[in-house]
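Page 42, continued from yesterday. The earlier attempt failed because a stray header line got pasted into the input along with the sequence. Redoing it now with the clean sequence only.
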Amino acid sequence: MKNQNGITLIELLAAVSILLIISSVVYGVLISSNKNYKNISEKVNLNQEANLLLATIRNYHQKEALHTFDANGKEIYKLKYDSTAKKAYIGVSSPTTELQKEGLNIILKIDSSEFSGEKTIYTADPLYIYIKLYNQQGQSYEIETVIKQY
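This time it went through. Structure tokens are written below.
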């Protein structure tokens, strides 16, 4: 038997073992990159929601069509914050429009102090605002800024 074509059982086992090791490494890389993608996309979603929330408040603060007048004739709008449910609302005469999407919680501070209930915002005054949004996964995003009417 001089012509022995084919492979031995040991060569076959070695090839399968090497293939298993390489495929497990590739699988691990794919799983970790998928988890990383989910974390980054959640962080980006929080960033977008916080910017949208801030733009909504800025629109109320700067656009005359979204104001009403108090007894002294000053332009105002209302913010409402429920500190137990971590929900915020905005409105012209009564705050009914929810600021954040379902599934997100908010911490809202006006003039460096957290408040609960309804607050009247005077548009002539600068609005010092701190917003912290967080989701069920425990990720959060914070913004602190000043909104002025020009």
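Notes: The chain has one domain: 10-147.
Reminder to self: strip header lines before submitting.
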